Fold:
Amino acid sequence: MGGRFFAFRPGIVGIWAVLPAADAKAAILGAPEPGAIGFLPANTPVQADIEWFHNVFLLPVVFGISLLVLILLAYVVFRFNENANPTPSRIAHNTPLEIAWTVIPALILVVIAVPSFHLLAGQLVIPAPDVTLKVTASQWHWNYGYPKSEGGFSFDSLIKDDKDLKPGDIRLLSVDNAAYVPVGKVVEVDVTSQDVIHSFSVPSFGVKIDAIPGRLNKAWFKAEHEGVFHGQCSNICGIDHAFMPIEIHVVSQNAYQAWLATAKKQFAQADRLDFADAGRVKP
Ligand SMILES: [Cu+2]
Structure:
């Protein structure tokens, strides 16, 4: 699939070019900024395509239809008001017109469906993974599990209290234990829940998938740049729904191996999820 679903796409990832390479490792890229509008910078081909689909494809359709309706309304208001048109027409039906205003919107929807289905396939047809990350949602935190090939451990990731925030942390988005993944590798994300329905969502990666108890949903991403990327639970899951942020560090292969080595020791005792039990999480 090559990670490119559309033939034409402008340089959405241009923002990466302005970042100094040396700082990229520590840069927080996948997080909202005050006053900003639009998508977070895309860090995967899928998210770049989502942004293209929205900005280049859907927005012109939306503006075009809005403009057409505005012009028609204005025409009716000025051309057919009581002064300009004292004797109104009594025509109630016009078959060709009715066919046209049914068929044309239907055709617009069909045209939109083509890139839309491409995107869905891009998100859900998972390439052969280099790393598998198991994500288990709970009220109200995430648990990240790494398979035996990566050391076989899992750990909880909880929001940082305001009093624990350090310089560089982001209130409501920074966590105590972030998940690490290598840059440029296909990461399969196996998502489930052990209580209610949550949703694992990382905007910069184009990943948003429900975490459902008793079911294993799969998503994937291939991060193109290093950095710190944030997301949030995106399904109302209870009183602390807003306080279960996601923090993923995309690092070089070497840094990832180094992190695996320390994390394996640090979280050895916390290995409460058996990978073989995917989708059948123990209480
Ligand atoms: Cu949740």
Remarks:
- The chain is about 30% helix and 20% strand.
- Residues 137, 198, 233, 235, 237, 241, 244 surround copper (II) ion (CB under 6 Å).
- Residues 45-79 form the longest helix (35 residues).
